[in-house]
Amino acid sequence: MRSAQIKPKPLLVCSGGTSSRCAADGHWTLDLRESYRQLHLDISSSHVTLGAGHSMKTLLSELARYRRSFPSGLSGLPGLGYILTGGISPLSRSQGLAIDQIIEIKGVWGNGESFIQSKPVASSSLKDQLTWRGLCGAAPFLAVITGLKLATQPLKPLRIWQFNLHYEQLLDLIHQAEIWPQSMSLQWIWGNEIKAYGVSILNDNDGAETFKQLQKTLLCNNIIKIDDVAGLHELPPFMLPTCSKAPTDRFHSEVVGLLSPTWGNSCDQLMKSLADLMAKRPDPRCCVAAQQLGGATRQISKDASSFIHRQAIWKPWITAAWPAGDTHIKQQSLNWLEQVWATLEPCCDGVHLAQMHPHLPWHQRELKAAFGEWLPGLQELKACHDPYGTLPPL
Ligand SMILES: Cc1cc2nc3c(=O)[nH]c(=O)nc-3n(C[C@H](O)[C@H](O)[C@H](O)COP(=O)(O)OP(=O)(O)OC[C@H]3O[C@@H](n4cnc5c(N)ncnc54)[C@H](O)[C@@H]3O)c2cc1C
Predict the structure, then answer these.
(1) Ligand 1 mean position to 144 CA, how many Å?
(2) Which residue, 187, 172, 333, 344, is CA-closest to 273?
(3) CA triplet 210, 183, 179: central angle to 5 degrees?
(4) Which of 204, 246, 259, 289 is 20 to 30 A from 341 in CA distance terms?
């Protein structure tokens, strides 16, 4: 990295290894999973030091032993990539994003220089504040991160409720969720069927009351599966049943994540258009899903990190899937993804760059939508810290 000799660029980095860009034909991958395995909880401060080789599952299991937790996402499989790209958790509405928990960042800039950067305070220099902003939410463009120090949260028992619903019920549920207390969040996934997945913090009075009302109305006619679990480390999987019509077991996919403020009444038309596109999916594994943020995630200034869409309360994401090696369905699925994106775009002005796509034609469009007016600032940081463009292009 110091001598700018890595070719072809970009150098790919693998932490959890769950995204399509941790390895690619003809590219070098720096796989951090073997060598960066430190995980230490300081009991007195409740801060955890986490190496880039661990998955979120390992982090949660270790913290649970001390009755601590971390706002991880809907799966324990991702690693540091989850935190570095923002990290939206089913508990983000009460605990914030994953990047909001970062206290210290350790790594190697794209130019090969190592660094340790601490969360700035009011008296920190402008340079340190901007560097921190860049690292929180856009680190993969600037540096290889080898470890983080993170604040942790008390372990909280959760109620997870899941049920299948019709399109009209989904509309109703989305409307209701927009005024839910922060202790509750809605996730839904729409493929061959539609499934809702609610997460509520148990022992929260507002949440308990809202759940009681839901049971009397929307939930009373549906078969609902309720799991009370000790914390996020016991979250049941968020997925649709395996699709029996899928042509082969091995498949590839690309995901685009969007961000939007409250949908309100515009939701009805949006969902109607979406229903038409859902009927035209080129592969049964293509789907649209969404998770809810807001609450605590809105309380942080948009200038504090590279996650600028602090007003967002929905993150819909679109998955294009195809049988491995089938270039025809691949193209159809990517076209379908773009159609769904165009349909959602009027209500979703932001992008959540949880998955990067420098290999696809819409990379620039995603960068602009993800970072908005902050993009030139990020590009300045990149020119300083990754002048040879060793890491993904910005
Ligand atoms: C099943 C599943 C559920 C998910 N649920 C959520 C969710 O609830 N909320 C949410 O916000 N996201 C979610 N995601 C998205 C996921 O968090 C992102 O795709 C994340 O980037 C994957 O992390 P990873 O460690 O597996 O990254 P990898 O696949 O290992 O790497 C992906 C890219 O991230 C960058 N990167 C990774 N590690 C580093 C590092 N140490 N230093 C510099 N760059 C690095 C690199 O550019 C790399 O190419 C989910 C993904 C999956 C597969």
Answers:
(1) 13
(2) 344
(3) 55
(4) 246
* DSSP symbols for 44-70: TTTEEEEETT--HHHHHHHHHTTTEE-
How remote is the CA of residue 17 from the centroid of ligand 1, in Å? 7
Mean pLDDT taken over the chain: 95
Nearest one of 98, 92, 105 to 134, comparing CA atoms: 105
For the CA of 255, the closest atom of ligand 1 is 19
Cα separation values, 169 from 47, 166, 176, 194, 310, Å: 42, 5, 10, 10, 28
Residue with the smallest CA separation from ligand 1 atom 15 is 354
The model's pLDDT over 275-312, given as tens digits with 9 standing for 90+, comes to 999 999 999 999 999 999 999 999 999 999 999 999 99
Give the list of residues 6+ apart from residue 122 with CB closer than 8 angstroms, or none.
none
Give the ligand 1 atom nearest the CA of 79.
Answer: 25
**pLDDT tens track for 210-262:** 999 998 887 777 778 999 999 999 999 998 877 656 665 789 999 999 999 99
What is the CB < 6 Å shell around ligand 1? 12-19, 21-22, 32, 52, 73-75, 77-82, 84-88, 139-140, 144-145, 291, 354-356, 392
- Give the domains, in start order, of the chain with CATH numbers: 12-155 (3.30.465.10), 158-373 (3.40.462.20)
Q: Please give the helix or strand (H or E) that residue 226 lies within, else none.
A: strand 225-229
Q: Which of 6, 12, 18, 56 to mutate to test the pocket of ligand 1 (most atoms within 8 A of CB)?
A: 18
**CB within 8 Å of 222: residues ≥ 6 apart:** 163, 164, 165, 169
Phi then psi dihedrals of residue 6, to 5 deg: -75, 125
Task: Supply 167's token pair.
Answer: 């399109």
Site to probe by mutation for ligand 1, drawn from 11, 20, 36, 84 as the one with most ligand atoms within 8 Å of Cβ, is 84
**Are 187 and 288 spatial neighbours (Cβ–Cβ below 8 Å)?**
no
Alpha helical stretches, state H, the chain: 56-64, 80-84, 92-95, 126-138, 167-177, 205-216, 266-278, 327-344, 363-371, 375-385
